[in-house]
Amino acid sequence: MTPIHRTINSDAEAPIKGRGAACRIPHRFEAWAREAFDDGWGDGAAAQDAAPAPRTQWVWEEARSALTRNDSPDIFFDQAVNPYRGCEHGCIYCYARVTHSYLNLSPGLDFETRLIAKRNVAALLRAELARPAYRPSVINIGSATDAYQPIERQLGLTRALIEVLAQARHPFAIITKGSGVERDIDLLAPLAQARLVAVNLTITTLDARLARVLEPRAAAPHRRLLTIRRLAQAGIAVGVSVAPQIPFITEDMEQVLAAAREAGASSAFYSVVRLPWELNGLMRQWLQQHYPERAARVLARIQDLHGVDADQRKAGRVYDSNRATRMKGQGLWADLLRQRFEHACRQLGLVRERPPLDATQFRPPAPSGQQGQGVLF
């Protein structure tokens, strides 16, 4: 039998301050197993307490392409660009965590502590937009990472992408939990006036204590509200995402929508929590660490939202990837959630459709500055 390599802490281990995940959970492609074992020669608990907190590390990558394309009917954009792999914000529920498995890294701690920055992403984007066969459609920045996570302050890759898109008069949307987007108001404001950009801030909850353990290195909820206000005051179309909705955890949807509307948001959308692949185990561990008294209840309701039947529940499944229902769920509880959202939006005057952006202004950029392909080092 081939052993499976694992580097994982026990479920009883205390959470790590400032991190969403508490372990380097093994990914689905690993072939060897390794587990901690106390051989009696020392105090295992003391050694664990003395271990330094994991630091954030990053490396450059020479990417092969900038744009990724999407054919899912339940996602509002056709193409996206992500300047980073991994995200220091550490949101425990992030569906993008499972993509770290393709890098032979853990969707747990590695996703939020071992980041990859695409050095040539702006040059690649310029070259791809300049191709004769290219046809413009809205590009989403930040679909699999947060483009305004802390590393952006140092590297500025997101700003470089915006500069390329601005030169090409190409429509794009941004979704973020980072207040760093305010830095780029000077670029975004004139583009917004030309209907070339919309910005969405995700606010999962107004509960600061919950936010600190749910999305530990993202901007605090009150800071995101201030960002909405500043963007709106600059004339930028700004929406609020109350996503994901996690049963019995994020329970203040109406309050979030009201606060965002008061700050200047004009549109809103939501989705329900999704737990594909390794995210299932990560979320279970997080619930046991932070909300053990309601963990089983939360997981049962997530299964209800995704229509998971009895046999699937016995197998530990909590998620249905059906594109027709995965974003909003299905059944009674999904309907109640939808009704709450729609009623709040009507009461507050929030539009549930994203503002239309104009692709007719697009002009292909000169492909100057394109860099050659390389390797991660």
From TrEMBL:
Chain ranges passing through the membrane: none
InterPro entries for the chain: Elp3/MiaA/NifB-like_rSAM, MJ0683-like, rSAM, rSAM_sf
All residue ranges annotated as the Elp3/MiaA/NifB-like radical SAM core domain in the record: 77-300
Region described as Disordered: spans on this chain: 356-377
Keywords: Iron, Iron-sulfur, Metal-binding
Gene3D superfamilies: 3.80.30.30
Endoplasmic reticulum listed as a keyword: no
NCBIfam families recorded: rSAM_PA0069
Protein name: PA0069 family radical SAM protein
